[in-house]
Fold:
Amino acid sequence: MMLKINDLNTYYGAIHALKGIDMEVDEGEIVSLIGSNGAGKTTLLNTITGVARAAKGTVVFKGRDITNIPSYAMTKLKISISPEGREVFPELTVEENLRLGAYIVKDKGAISAGYDRVYDLFPRLKERYKQQAGTLSGGEQQMLAVGRALMSSPELLLLDEPSLGLAPNFVLMIFDMIKEINKQGVTILLIEQNANMALSASDRAYVLENGKVTMSGEAKKIASDPKIKKAYLGLG
Structure:
C-alpha cells in the first residue's frame, strides 16, 4: 500500500470540508478522484500535502504517518504535485521552471536525466526550453507543470485538474502522457473534473460529494453506473 487515508476530517473555519475520508492507492496504480466543483477534491489534496491541516484522521505513505507534515517535506518523501491552474513561473524559461522542480536534487547527472525524461515525454518543451513560461499556451504550461513535478523522480504523483481549461487535443495529449508516466513506474492520484477521461485512464476511482466518498471501486464499474453516467458523464 503506497498511500492510505483513514477517517480524514478537515475544516475551513466552521465549514466541515472533509467528512471522514477513507482512501487507498496501491503502488503502480492510477487512481482518480472525481466530483463536482466544491466537493472537496482540492481540499483532500491540500490535506494530504500539508497545505490544509487535518483535524482528525491519518495520511500514511508507505507505512509512515505523514499527517500534517510540512508541505516542503513532500518532495523528500518522493511525492510530487502538479497543482490546479499549473502555477508555472511566467518570467522564467521552460528549463528554469524544470530546474526548480529538482531543487532538492544535488546530483548533476540526475538533473540532466530529469531533463531528458521530460523532453522525451513532452517534445514541445524541448523545442521551447529557452522560452519564457508565460508565453506558452495553456496546454504547454500544463505539460511544463507535470514535467516540473517529475524532475524530483517521484514515486507518487498528485495531479490536480490537469485538463482544466485545455483544448480537446491537449486533453488527449495530457492523458496519454499520464498513462505513459504510469508505465514508467510512477503511481498517480488524479483529481479531475473530466470524469469521462479520468475514469477511462484509471484503474480505480473514488467519487467525492459534499466532503464524503459516496462510491469507490474499479474505474470501469463506476463509469458504467447509471447515477455516475447521469451526474458526471452527461449520459442517461
Notes: Strands lie at 3-12, 15-25, 30-34, 54-61, 64-65, 79-82, 156-160, 187-191, 204-209, 212-218. The longest strand covers residues 15-25.
